[in-house]
Amino acid sequence: MLVKLTSKRRITLPTAVVPSLGEAEYFEVTIEGDRIVLTPVPTQKAYAVREKLRRLGITEQDVEAALDWAHQQ
């Protein structure tokens, strides 16, 4: 299928593709060679929390250390 990149850098997904995406609203975008790959991302609350922690630079080890500290109190 052929799609066009608009002057506002937008691409419209073909109607034939949309049903196979399920209820996805967000997509992870990666580049593989000369291909753009869109991967549906679940929008669950837990995912949103993990994404915010990642943006803040908080690692799994930080969370474990905080839990250990809290259990010692």
From TrEMBL:
Protein name as catalogued: AbrB family transcriptional regulator
Keyword DNA-binding: yes
Keyword match DNA-binding: yes
Domain SpoVT-AbrB: 1-43
GO-annotated molecular function: DNA binding
Record's keyword terms, sorted: DNA-binding
